[in-house]
Amino acid sequence: MYTIKRECHNEIMIKNSRFITILKKVTNQDEVFKALADAQIRYPGATHYCYGYILENQEKASDDHEPGGTAGLPILEVMKKQQLKNVLCIVVRYFGGIKLGAGGLVRAYTKSVSEALKTVDLNELVEGFQIQFKIDYKTYKKLEPYLKEGVVENATFLDQVEMIVDASPTLLRYLDDWSINYEKGPSVLIEKEF
Question: Which region holds residue 22: left if phi is over 0, alpha if psi is between -120 and 50, else beta?
Fold first, then answer.
């Protein structure tokens, strides 16, 4: 699984129609709805704002008044083939006066997303767990270089170091090898750079 490193806006022209693809990292529906509203403000008066998104446990597509199955589903299919997660793809279309037909629309939306994906860098997503543990400072110094195998959500430095970390399987193995006790919480997706 992968996600994008940064937001992207990419434009192509197909038979006088402008297709502007926006790729945005999202983690929940509120972020999706905000991004859709922002797209309508940034690109006012467009004919269509078609989209697809894939979150950890949810996906959705919209044709936004294009013929059924000609926009949202092709967008989603490209995203699935790239194994994307936590990504929203909006394709804004300004109609150029030439009808493309159902097959032409599918090809246009597919091409628009594919071209935009060529311009972004991806990060790998690995499944892990949120964990919590307490360690002494000596152990913390030993563990510190390996924390890059996770995401530190919270750390408190008092008598001991208390941490909440989104841990990859690699980090969990280090903790097990060093006999560091931890409480395992919910599963999470952890973003790792290539």
Answer: beta
Question: CA-CA-CA-CA torsion for 113, 111, 79, 61, nearest 10 degrees?
Answer: 80
Query: Which H or E run contains 84?
Result: none
For residue range 99-140, list pLDDT tens digits in order.
999 999 999 999 999 999 999 999 999 999 999 999 999 999
The residue among 187, 191, 182, 170 whose CA lies nearest residue 139 is 182
Task: Show which of 96, 120, 144 is a domain's final residue.
Answer: 120
Q: What is the pTM of this model?
A: 0.86
Q: pLDDT tens digits for 5-31?
A: 999 999 999 999 999 999 999 999 999
CATH of the domain at 173: 3.30.70
